[in-house]
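Complex record, two chains
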Amino acid sequence: MRFPRKPVLGFLLCCALLHSSAFAQRAKPPGFPDGPGKDVLLAKCFQCHAPTMWQDHRQDRRGWESVLYRMVGRGALWTEDEIGTMAGYLAAAYPRQPAATPK
Amino acid sequence: MRELVARYLSRNISRRGFLKGLTTAGVSLTAAEAILDSLVPLANAQEASRVAPEAIKVVEGTGGEVFAEQLIASGVKYVFGNSASEDAQFYEALVDRPQLRYILTPHEGPGAAMAAGYVKASGEPAIVMQAAVVGMVNAMGQMFNAFKEQTPLVFYSYRTDQSGRAGRDGFEEVANQEQIVQPMTKYSWLARRPDMIPETVRRGFKAAWTPPHGPSYISWHSDFNDQKTYTEIVTQDKVDPRMRVRPNPVEVERAAKLLVEAKMPLLIAGDELYGAKASPKAVKLAELLGMPVTQVRQIYANFPEGHPLWVGSPPAARIASLDFPKTPDVVINVGNKLQHNSPQPLVGREAKFIDMRIDSWSMGNVMNTEVPLVADVGYGLDDLTAAVEGLMTPALKKKAQERAEEVRRFSEKAKALRALVSKNPEWDRSPMLADRVTSEVARFADKDAIIVHEAGSVVLHGFDFNPAGGRELFFYYGAHLGSGVGTAAGVKLARPNQQVICLVGDGSFVFGPTALWNMARLELPVITVVYNNHAYGGPHSRVIEKTAGGKMVQKRQFVHDYLGSPDMNMALIAKGFGVDAEVAESPEQLRAALGRARKATVEGKPYLIDAQVARMGVAWADKPWIPPISIARERTRKV
């Protein structure tokens, strides 16, 4: 299939290509600790994304903000406050960690 | 016998008299009947020339000549082809027929993309030629695109196996060549005799251009091109059914009633609007009802994005993911294929669904359709708008105005929120964010620029496309990659007086850069911007999603996505094809490069910018791992 060969950027994928199992997961995404901003995040992100997209991503607040603003470029309609709240939550729940050393 | 033939063709003797004459001369009855059968096309041709000489003419010449003659009669101005020795007589015919302009394309794929771009941007017929099956399979990727995008493009390739030796597994021979393309053409056919070449050509164009449009394929044994024949050439309008269909008036009334009674109707715009030049009619219907408008995946932007009733595209390709309206109770689709990429229906079952399209074949495939309106969307919108106007009472008009105001408020808010993309803390970084590249190009583009978009998963913003005289979009809906550069060349060929900008990802670009050479040779001043992150970004993310927490992520070992080490320099590739180019690392460099691109295009020259884009996403290392394969080190002899 040629369509998936998307050569640019593309951190996250529209759920148009996801399996039905991913939809089932999306109803109650696991792995998201309670914290300020969780409700906003769950309300805004999971119509397009499966939780597995997030599981392995670790960044500081600036990095998460950048991710969220890139989603604005892909059609997400969020206010600056909402983006700030989500970035704060993600930076706390999924903070930057030392990168694994390639072997 | 020659005299008998002449007398028969000039109607001086009857069919029976002709047979009797031959048998008297010693020819067996069976042989005489065979000779008579072979004369039927000639007799018909002569008859036709007597009946309508302005539309039909009888031509004697090689198969290649009558092929060329029929292309002219079918309205073709451009032939896109790759060198094919068995088309010699066709090339010979072009010498005396300058009105048929041959574009030599160095690879059949981008060549077909160029032809498709020309057809889409001009609305004129074209043919793309390949050398036998070996060229045909190169073109088939773009044939797939034409099939998915419903582009009326005619493909031709001869069979290298000649009629006297076919079936012997000869050079470049494959059994049933014309059948290979059947699943993705509207029509494919092998002409059985040289005199049937023009008829086959006509039928190919008729099939491609009768709605719903799509590609067709014609073929014949290569020796037919060399043989002398005598046959009729007919102008295409004499075989064109001119299919423009008005919708069923009963269904129109039902649709109008549903729309005026709806609390929150929603219109989905589609590519049939572009083809029918009916976007202003969709605007009129939407304004009459105060109806919000959206669009899902298509080639063109089919509704003005700056209009207050435009609510944007749904981010997750389902209507339910729209921020507004959240619960439309009546949805009308006007000309959109509604490609379904998930198990969920694109429009939820709770809404009543009206489907207005000429492509009745795909209606009801997934969607439950309350009102089917099989129609040319131009006629369909005329009739539906008239029916709605007939039902509008003062109370309904007031309701529509209030709804329009509600949509306008959302639309203005959405516009402000979309502009937040530039608040990204990495906005000024180098290498650039893809969004920054898009933003700079949107700022730079002419008000009526045509944007050819094959830039992977980049979502365009800031262009405010408007099919009614503003910026236009040509998106890679078919998704067989390598189409962008060729498409842009074809679009510029069709619309030389509009700025054409090709946005292409690095992966897409290297699938089909050869049309750059056509841009240089034909002086097609196209600006190409490559979003170059040296990676397949989309597959990177999707693979991680499917293998979350897996070994690839833990070890940062991805075999499938990194295109660097060594990095490809697209500017050097462009220069190799004769197109001036440069690499832009930063937003400032990009802005300056766009200025130089404008200067080049004003002077009639194409230009390419290799825009360096950052790899953003999960688990990208600064220096990504590559499989440790070095054949040089594995050698036992240093040769």
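Note: The longest helix of chain A spans residues 80-93.
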